[in-house]
Structure prediction request, 566 residues.
Amino acid sequence: MQPSYHQAVHRFALFLVACTLLLLIAGALVTSNEAALSVPDWPLSYGTLLPPMVGGIVFEDSHRKIAGAVLLLTLILAIWLWRAEQRRWMRWLGLAAFAAVLGQAILGGLTVLLNLHYGMPVAHACLAQIFFGIVVSIALFTSNWWTADHPRLEDSGSPSVHSLAFLNAGVIFLQVVLGAGFRHKDIPIWPHLVGAGAVLATVTWTGAALRRRFEHSREMRLARILLHSFFGMQFLLGIGALWSRMSTANAPQPLPVTIAFTVAHTVLGALLFACSVAVILVCRRLVPRIREVAARTPEQAALS
Amino acid sequence: MKARFWASLACLSGLALVLVSCGKKEETAENAPAGQPAATPIDMSTVGSVSGAVKLEGPAPKPKKINMGADQFCASVHPGGGATEEVVTDASGDLANVIVYVKEGLGNRTFDAPKTPVELDQKGCMYSPHIVTLMAGQTFDVKNADQTTHNIHPVPKNNREWNKSQAPGAPDISDTFAREEVAIPVQCQVHPWMKSYIAVFKHPYFAVTGANGSFDIKNLPPGTYTLEAWHEKFGVSDQTVTIGAKEAKTVTFSFKPATGGD
Prediction:
């Protein structure tokens, strides 16, 4: 059965994507300003909802308040999907998004209460990426494009575009984990640099496959351009972030140049990961997988 | 399906509880009164002393400027911006804020911690003094003389870590450290430029160099000791000194900016 398009749900999902992006910026500002422990208690800040907004408290408390708003918006979306969605798996995806943001809030609290130990900051940073990926997926699944009919594309290459897109997203996520590990001083820089090389390889491979195999597909071209653009900018921002960090290593406090580069690098990393998830989904929507091709009737095969 | 969901939820909750209780367990164990042995008697008629100075060879790095614009109160106290205190020297190259202490040579002697507390104040969005020294078990009080909120966050490797906030006019925060550690960084994440160090010893033979780079360690029993000078930027430097009965020795330490120690 063809799922129906709910414009309001889709727009709400897009609004949630924008709010989550704002939350990612706020979170990156907390880390870059070394403000994570400026508010020692949780869930309240200094025992109140309105703490003194000075110094690092501005970043930490703003992050908490935006997170609260995103939690509420995700709950609304989950309820809305549960009531309005025909696709059963979409209803569960809405609940998964809510579970992820709730888990993220608890991880954020543990990050503060455990003084940034036990890998909590890295776990918090990685779950943020997963949550963003889920929210972007929901926005895509509820779009008019997803629910409309599209001609199926033939994938004649090997490995399949599905495997490539999945590998690409996996490597980007691993790179996000390594980046978070470095930013939170759990690992040295070199694994993140090696990861950048791996991402360069998978993004180039995936982009080349999309170009060669689906040259005339508008969606695949857009996916390829976005993937390449995000990665190109991310690579340059990574160099900028590293340079600013090294050149201000002995500064008495985080400097604006380091903060700007690091925040931009972190947020674009999230966008790149979300883009790689979207590439998986677009491929899934347009290109039948091997077992789907095998299941086609001789008449369907003849028509393709 | 439902059973699996509730089982997963129970596992996650259990994990969170274990993590939280792990943090608390450390706190409880360390705050418990330790069965300290009685202090070893020192024959005060034979004690000597060691004094001296710490020098910086070569030009001192310039203090770095601090931008306190993030907090209006701090900016009003330092209209032209503050300066770091990590390297403080006078015109002769005498180095302040160096901890000089007996590292080895006291054997199995034990010492009582003084009853008087040591103070760490927050004045003009800077820590005062920059270096705090005390004995294990000795109380130290954190004060807030500022009209702004601070958080105090010691980051030890060998002691219990904590992070507490202190509003303007709030009561002092009193605490102790159980184990020897040189030195524990102290940070304020509200004002990320605020940095200080706390050194904890199990004996009373330590000093911090003043503005003229001098130090004086008194009442040392006769013996051969390893003295160590610790600086937050230049690292450590050791010297061996033998003190006879009622003898006063002089020792000079020197650090080099480029190499990080002598």
About this structure: The interface with chain A takes residues 12, 16, 19-20, 22-23, 64, 66-67, 70-74, 84, 86, 148-149, 151, 153, 161-165, 167, 188-193, 195 of chain B (CB under 8 Å). Helices of chain B lie at 2-31, 72-77. Residues 230 and 236 of chain B are 4 Å apart (CA to CA).
